[in-house]
Amino acid sequence: MSRFFDQVTGERREAELEERSSLSPSQANQRLILLASNESPYGPSPKALAAAQDALADSHRYPDPDSRELRARLAADLEVRPAQIVVSAGSAALLSLIAGALLEPGLNAITAACTFVVYAAATQATGANLIRVPMKFDRLDLEGILAAVTPQTRLVFIANPNNPTGTIVGVDELEAFLERIPAHVFVVLDEAYHDYAEHFSQLRNIPYSRSLDHVRQGRPVVVLRTFSKVHGLAALRIGYGIGPSALMEFVANSQDTFSVSTAAQAAALAALDDVEHVAFGVKQNALQIAWLSEELARLGWRVAPAWGNFLFCEVDGNTGAIVTRLREEGILIRPMESWGALGCVRIAAGTEEENRILVDVLRKLRAE
Ligand SMILES: *Cc1c(COP(=O)(O)O)cnc(C)c1O
Q: Residue 39 Cα, ligand 1 centroid: separation in angstroms?
């Protein structure tokens, strides 16, 4: 089981290192433009950094294993009980914990064919089967997922917005889906890009998510959120899940003690307080996503409607050649071959300057 995990994460790490180390020495010194991992280009909130710095002075003390202060804060903000929240070392860690709680050999989990890779890793680590339902073009096929449910199904993973395609599941569509999902199945709603999507929802006047209503109504739904994206704390490893208290307490008990550092807990609390930093991040992101979408479409690329901080594109030309040439220029983007999306790439929106450089290089490549 663990060998599988090692293999998957090992391969990904190697691929990442490969991307960085294959630059020429002079380029390795130059600042890279990192658009391959959907990170925030604006960095963490200075307030979160200061809080983490203060917390470091207490590094000789073990952290609060239950993240009580952060959970109380989140519970108040989200109008749920603290017992319904688990804080973990990144939301990806929660995927493994939830899979571990619900799956075993002979059972199965369902997800989409083109989605977050960790769902497969977390499922396969338990020895359970993963059923991958084909996409409906760039979107998740909830009807297809319902049709795939068997008596052995215990979990469905839905990324909303979906990574890598960036599309969302409609509010009514999800409601209808949850009405029909059988009682023996838990649904994980992974909302890693929640703040970006919420902002787009207001701009576009299209409803995005009522996920917490479902949790408050006591449905078998677990909502996942993270501080890795708009809050800019990916390296500190902190995320959380909100779900039925019985499952969440079980998950909390199966978690490694002290897995979330004091610095991460303090930074997360301060990041929640720094509403301006988040507001800046989502607003700037929306501007950059709109600009980049237009520019890439002008190059003849097909760009999926984006609800996160990244674009899923079908390129005009050879993806391998484009990714390689960009890498030579110090720009990293993600080719989508291993997701089965041939001819496609995923590009995180960088800062205005980074995006201009990207588009300039792509224009130059096209002219070659
Ligand atoms: C980035 C991302 C996460 C966040 O993972 P962390 O472990 O919290 O850093 C979770 N789900 C999806 C779909 C993501 O794209």
A: 10
pLDDT tens string 246-255: 999 999 999 9
φ, ψ of residue 276 in degrees (nearest 5): -65, -40
Q: What is the mean pLDDT of residues 49-66?
A: 98
Question: Which residues contact ligand 1 via a Cβ below 6 A?
Answer: 38, 90-92, 116, 159, 163, 190, 192, 226, 228-229, 234, 239
Can you say whether the dihedral through the CA atoms of 216, 221, 224, 230 is positive or negative?
Answer: negative
Q: Ligand 1, residues 97, 111, 118, 167: which to mutate, most atoms within 8 A of Cβ?
A: 118
Write out the two tokens for 104.
């075993």
Residue 245: C-alpha distances to residues 93, 181, 190, 222, 360 (Å): 18, 20, 18, 10, 51
The residue count for the chain = 368
Q: What pLDDT shows up at residue 21?
A: 47
CB 249 within 8 A of CB 297: no
What integer pLDDT is reported at residue 113 of this predicted model? 97
The reported pLDDT for the residue numbered 326 is 97
